Amino acid sequence: MTVLTLEGHGLTIDKMKSFLADAGSTIEISEGAYENVRRSRRIVEDIIEHEKTIYGITTGFGLFSDVRISKDRTQDLQVNLIRSHSCGVGRPFGEHTVLAMMVLRLNTLLKGHSGVTVALVDQLKTFINERIIPKVPEQGSLGASGDLAPLSHLAIALIGEGEVYHKGELRESKSVMESLGITPLTLEAKEGLALINGTQPMTAQGLINYIEAGKLMDDSVWIASLTHQALNGITDAFNEKVHTSRGYPEQVEVARQLRSYLEGSSLTTRQGEVRVQDGYSLRCIPQVHGASLQTLAYVKDKLEIEMNAANDNPLVFGEDEVISGGNFHGQPIAIAMDLLKIGTAEIANISERRIERLVNPSLNGDLPAFLSPEEGLQSGAMILQYSAASLVSENKTLAHPASVDSIPSSANQEDHVSMGTIGSRHARDIIDNMRNVLATELFIALTAVEIKGIDGLSPKTREKFDTYRGIVDFIGHDRNFSKDIKILSDALRVVD
């Protein structure tokens, strides 16, 4: 069983990946982190006791930041905030995404700059360990002032309101808490604001996007290797000298992987044996896939910074240092997600072009047109290419950068926003489309190499062939191919 200890720092994507992959995983909180929480809470309580004017503690929010709130109404202020901001719409985020949200939000609170109580962090810990997953609608955030609406739906569950998923059922939060003997949280001063001023929805979805995109970028190379052999591709283009002469490490690495996957194949050719050069979707795999790989390094860096960031407002630093700022602004993650959208969309783009080469009788050598078992009577893989083309065209619209958009809110007090959650959601959708396109290429390539002769496959790709042929059949007759694509797509997924 995975135990993830949270300290307010040191959280990594690999640690989160292990935590999310283990259904029985739990989190613990270090004693040092608890002391950070206690220390910052004492400062907040002193502010209330002496009725100092501090945003969000003794004032209203947004445009109402100049409205003073008496200390006997501070609890009402926090509950009203959560209730009024719970106005998200649309389908809910996936349960793994919301679980990650809670872990990331808890890690932020443990830094000791948020001024929350031990009771709040323990409530979050309980929800995480008991897998009480709030239902969080995924639309309605501008990505600055934090992801206010989504995080409010998370927060409202902690006080026994709203809906949660528990053991496969959607139920009222209060009902689940009663069944487990958990007392609804009473929000103290600043705690509502501390729960919702942050970037956890865009970051949690971004974290899962990164995990899925990384897996698919790895898979795309061996899938392309199957296609390359089915089309008697030329290996000279992957010569190490070609790629080191340009200098991009990711390009060099993809070329190395291709040489490794193709080593020992009798289906590949050398330049001049069948043709002098391959089309770009074969010849330029290292250049295109390598460029997409470059986006992952940037995205990982930004995600791991944000996963350990203080993105609350105001931030508590000491007795006389409670400072209002803008760390809730999601622009760093917004730009990272837009970059990831481009990188993953391009992998799908080039994959679809390889699909076209596999099915087009003008391009696929001596393979049957559309891999049809009976040309004319059966369509074979003809419309599979249509479906892939549809997905990559959809990706082109989704890849429009969300981060360059902004719209003023709160009577122009909040006059520039990141739209980072939109970018993160669209990146997820592009990655889902990319997975289906790669599954389609894999499905067609499995049949194509079988027609060419699987004994000619390289040892490494023969292993892949045997694995995936074990879960989908040869295109021996027309059938409902969507089932085959779903089986393969699910097999390429990391997080359910």
From TrEMBL:
<dbReference type="InterPro" id="IPR005921">
    <property type="entry name" value="HutH"/>
</dbReference>
<keyword id="KW-0963">Cytoplasm</keyword>
<keyword id="KW-0456">Lyase</keyword>
<feature type="cross-link" description="5-imidazolinone (Ala-Gly)">
    <location>
        <begin position="144"/>
        <end position="146"/>
    </location>
</feature>
<dbReference type="GO" id="GO:0019556">
    <property type="term" value="P:L-histidine catabolic process to glutamate and formamide"/>
</dbReference>
<protein>
    <recommendedName>
        <fullName>Histidine ammonia-lyase</fullName>
        <ecNumber>4.3.1.3</ecNumber>
    </recommendedName>
</protein>
<dbReference type="InterPro" id="IPR001106">
    <property type="entry name" value="Aromatic_Lyase"/>
</dbReference>
<feature type="modified residue" description="2,3-didehydroalanine (Ser)">
    <location>
        <position position="145"/>
    </location>
</feature>
<dbReference type="Pfam" id="PF00221">
    <property type="entry name" value="Lyase_aromatic"/>
</dbReference>
<dbReference type="GO" id="GO:0019557">
    <property type="term" value="P:L-histidine catabolic process to glutamate and formate"/>
</dbReference>
<comment type="similarity">
    <text>Belongs to the PAL/histidase family.</text>
</comment>
<dbReference type="InterPro" id="IPR022313">
    <property type="entry name" value="Phe/His_NH3-lyase_AS"/>
</dbReference>
<keyword id="KW-0369">Histidine metabolism</keyword>
<dbReference type="InterPro" id="IPR008948">
    <property type="entry name" value="L-Aspartase-like"/>
</dbReference>
<dbReference type="GO" id="GO:0005737">
    <property type="term" value="C:cytoplasm"/>
</dbReference>
<dbReference type="InterPro" id="IPR024083">
    <property type="entry name" value="Fumarase/histidase_N"/>
</dbReference>
<comment type="pathway">
    <text>Amino-acid degradation; L-histidine degradation into L-glutamate; N-formimidoyl-L-glutamate from L-histidine: step 1/3.</text>
</comment>
<dbReference type="GO" id="GO:0004397">
    <property type="term" value="F:histidine ammonia-lyase activity"/>
</dbReference>
